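Reopening: structure tokens for the NDP complex, inputs below.
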Amino acid sequence: VARNPGEAEFHQAVREVFESLEPVIKKNPGYLEDKILERICEPERQIIFRVPWVDDRGTVQVNRGFRVEFNSALGPYKGGLRFHPSVYLGIIKFLGFEQIFKNSLTGLPIGGGKGGSDFNPHGRSDAEVMRFCQSFMTELYRHLGEYTDVPAGDIGVGGREIGYMFGQYKRITNRYESGVLTGKGLDWGGSLVRTEATGYGVVAFTQEMLKTRGDAFDGKRVTVSGSGNVAIYAIEKVQQLGGKVVACSDSSGYVVDEAGIDVGLLKQVKEVERGRIADYASRRDSAELGRTGSIWDVAVDVALPCATQNELNGEHAATLIRNGVKAVVEGANMPTTPEGIHAFQEAGVLFAPGKAANAGGVATSGLEMQQNAMRDSWTFEYTEERLTSIMRNIHDMCAATAEEYGAPGDYVVGANITGFIKVANAMQAFGLV
Ligand code: NDP
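Re-run output (same inputs, fresh job):
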């Protein structure tokens, strides 16, 4: 804490991982002697840079850009870019730290990193977003490469932004280096299923958890918070499996739709028109905007927080438990506060952390890199099969590790330990680097 003042989210993420590691350290004191814990929470490299650009009125704007290259023990740094006004070093470090273990869990050869900017894309024209992305990449490009660092999207960064950044990278370097960014468009090196991957993966993971209790999505009431990339495709997959999503949200509020969210309309409002959740409510008779409280007041069997960090606290958890929630699975990164996690675990609710449950996004990014390296593109069905099998594998490894370390059913412990051991062993093998 003293070494990294003011980085509350980073402290929270490190504490959560380290609390799980006690039995591992006991079993293998070599990790302590080699100072693996001290080394793993110190990024290999942190880049902070100025991003000047001109808005549509001709006014000069200045934002701050970040790329934290956290750990490359398992492969090139890999992790998304976030454009949101709340971005500062502590957010990027928490996300980068989580990414190390998540990427390890996928079983693919990718290290951990994260980046972004405090730029707010809401309300900006396409031309403004393009100029911002070009300026951002004009500095970032020198730190990237398919064997070095491979960014992707995150909050505020989707196909449009990746396109502008890839175009600028290609122009500056004079290289068509497909493997330098993932989340690309299907016409220029992108992978089928990448858009759907995180949301679909969260639902596949949840399905495996429900199975352990002889249960399934069919007939379940579900809340999915957010209405961005992760949320939309989580909603779509839940509905394909026979569940009914009755509530979703954005940063301006939440909507309850007892007929089940119309995912086609939601995509139109959010992906095409870039509108607000209120626009969805105003166009659907069965939908009502939440007037009081929060989205977590809606009684459901399954809750999938898919918006942002610390959106579900201890009080929200108590309400969900009182209303009979059976499973809570994180689609976002660290959406549940430590008090919330504790409450779910105490109450015997199935709970899975984002670093395991939302790993489908980065896993499919890894599959995009494989296709780029092979100059190939796979079918939707084959790619989804690979994704589902990776999610099942992550689920089974987390469950087995939790059992092995005396915490059966504790997916937090299972994910943290499984993700850590592989990275720690690679770091030891490399010596002091
Ligand atoms: P998007 O930008 O597509 O969507 C984010 C959604 O969350 C929007 O509905 C947004 O509302 C809402 N939101 C964002 N910030 C806040 C806030 N402070 N309060 C309330 N609502 C908020 O992002 P993604 O769907 O890509 O990402 C969502 C989460 O999933 C993040 O935690 C991200 O790190 C994580 N994740 C994403 C992956 C991916 O592949 N995209 C992979 C793994 C994890 P509004 O539009 O009003 O801002």
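Residues 222 and 245 are 5 Å apart (CA to CA). Residues 380-404 form the longest helix (25 residues). Marking as resolved unless the reporter disagrees.
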